[in-house]
Structure formats: structure tokens, C-alpha cells
Design a protein that fits this description.
By secondary structure, the chain is mainly β. It contains two helices and six strands, in the order ββαβαβββ. The chain has a single domain, classed as Bacteriophage SPP1 head-tail adaptor protein (Thrombin, subunit H, Beta Barrel). It has a six-stranded antiparallel β-barrel. The radius of gyration is 18 Å and the shape is globular.
Length: 128
């Protein structure tokens, strides 16, 4: 059966991802020197993207090695060169909070989607 022009192709039970949150990725950058000529670092935005947010299950939290985390989320963005340039040394601001990146890579089942796992730590725990 031929598809008419503009008709969507059915791919079975594909789940639609709604990217309705704005994610801001930040990187530590040297912004100057103090009187002792030591570098001063601050977090600078390196890019923004529309993202979908999913909760991370208990089993995945243990597998990722973020057991001391107060909360963990998975953030899904389009697979772009900008998304691929984000490293685990960077951080993420989304949902009004700042998250340390603890995992990244192409989504295992969704083509064209790049996934990040972010974790928040209790300030008294001494985050990694």
C-alpha cells in the first residue's frame, strides 16, 4: 500500500517524546586571576536545548554509580553536534535546579535522541 505525500509513516508502538523543558548546559571557564595569580573559574552557559525529562529508576541509579544522589533524572535532547560536545565535566540547569552530569550518550532505543543523566547531591554529602 502506497503512502500519500505528507502522511506519517507508522513505526509500531513508538512513543512520542514531548520536549517541553528548556535545558541550559554550562561549563566551567576561567574568567580571570586573583591577586595571587590563581585562576578564577565560573560556570558559563555553552548552549541551550529543548528537552524532555524522565525520572531515573532505582536500579539505574545504582548501575550508574550515583547512589549518594538525592535525585536523578534523564534528559532527552535531539542528537546534534552541540549535544555530542557536552562532557561529564559540564552541568545542566533544568526544572529550576542544577544537576551534575553522570551519564551521556545516544538513547538506546530512540534514534536521533541523545540522553543525559543528571544527579543532585545533598550539599552536606560532599558531591563528587
Amino acid at each position: 500500500m502506497a503512502q500519500t505525500q505528507g502522511a506519517p509513516l507508522s513505526r509500531g508502538k513508538e512513543v512520542i517524546i514531548i520536549r517541553d523543558r528548556k535545558a541550559v548546559f554550562e561549563r566551567r571557564a576561567e574568567t580571570g586571576r586573583n591577586p595571587l595569580n590563581e585562576p578564577i573559574y565560573q560556570w558559563q552557559p555553552i548552549g541551550t536545548s529543548w528537552a524532555a525529562v524522565e525520572e531515573v529508576g532505582e536500579g539505574e541509579v545504582a548501575a550508574k554509580g550515583v547512589e549518594g544522589a538525592v535525585a536523578a533524572i534523564r534528559v532527552l535532547v535531539l542528537d546534534t553536534p552541540q549535544a555530542r560536545s557536552i562532557t561529564l565535566a559540564d552541568r545542566l540547569r533544568i526544572l529550576g535546579q542544577t544537576w551534575d552530569l553522570v551519564g551521556r550518550g545516544p538513547h538506546s532505543t530512540r534514534r536521533g535522541i541523545y540522553a543525559f543523566v543528571g544527579a543532585r547531591y545533598d550539599a552536606s554529602d560532599g558531591a563528587p
